[in-house]
Amino acid sequence: MRIRPYIASKDYEYLPQWIDNEKTHAFWSANRFPYPITPESFHAFLETMSTDWTDSAYVATEDNGQVVGFFCYSVNIDDNIGFLKFIIVDKSKRGMGYGKEMLNLALQYAFQITGAEAVQLNVFDENISAKKCYEKVGFVKRNIDRNAFAYKDELWSRCNMIINSK
Q1: Angle formed by the axes of helices 128-137 and 98-108, to 10°?
Q2: What pLDDT sits at residue 166?
Q3: Which of 64, 135, 126, 133 lies closest to 98 in space, CA to CA?
Q4: What is the pLDDT, as a whole number, of residue 54?
Q5: Residue 106's closest CA among 126, 87, 125, 122?
Q6: H runs (alpha helix) in the chain
Q7: How distant is the alpha carbon of residue 89 from its chain centre?
Q8: Residue 36: how many CA atoms within 13 Å on its side-chain side?
Q9: Confidence (pLDDT) at 42
Q10: Residues 6 or more apart whose Cβ sits within 8 Å of residue 154
Q11: What integer is the mean pLDDT of 69-80?
Q12: With 90 as the cut, is the pLDDT of residue 21 above it?
C-alpha cells in the first residue's frame, strides 16, 4: 500500500461507491456536506478545509494504483499535534486490515515527515468497527462528548482519540 495526494479528477469517482447510504455518510462526514455527495459540494468542502485548517486530502492505493482509502490530515503548528479526518476505506475492503495499514502509513507521514508529536482523530462512539480499527493502530480515548451529534432520531457521542509518536 502507498499513500499519495488526492487528485480530484482521478480519485473522486470512488467515494460515492464507498459512501452509498446516509448512515455511512454521517459516520464519515458528520454531515458537513449533503448526502449524496457530489463533486461540487465535496471539492468546495475540501477547499474550505484546506484554507481554514490547512488540511490536505490523501488516498491510499494498492501497489497497482487502485484507490482503496481516503483521509485528510493537518498539523497544528501551535501544539504540534496532527489531526486525521474523513477516514474511509473501500467498503469491499473493510475488515481486511486495509484501514490499519492506511493509518500506519498516515502516522508514519505525520511523525516522520511533518514532525507531529501526536496525532488525534474524532470518531462517533457508535461507529464500533472504526473505533476498533483505531484502537488496533494504537489510538487511545482522550475524551468523549456525549450526545454531540444528532442523526435522525439518534444522538451519537463523539470520541476524541490520540496516539503519541513512538
Answers
A1: 50
A2: 75
A3: 133
A4: 94
A5: 87
A6: 8-11, 15-18, 22-29, 39-53, 98-108, 128-137
A7: 9
A8: 10
A9: 96
A10: 126
A11: 96
A12: yes
Q: Could you give the angle at the alpha carbon of 66 between the alpha carbons of 60 and 67, nearest 5°?
A: 40
Distance CA 73, CA 119 (A): 9
Reported as a pLDDT band with limits 50, 70 and 90, residue 46 is very high
| Strand pairing category for 2-5 and 67-76 | unpaired
Cα–Cα distance for residue pair 137/154, rounded to 1 Å: 28
Single-letter amino acid, residue 2 = R
Query: pTM above the 0.85 mark?
Result: yes
Separation in Å, CA 55 to CA 16, 107, 109: 21, 15, 14
The x, y and z cell numbers of residue 3, run together, are: 499513500
The vertex-55 CA angle with 93 and 113, nearest 5°, equals 80
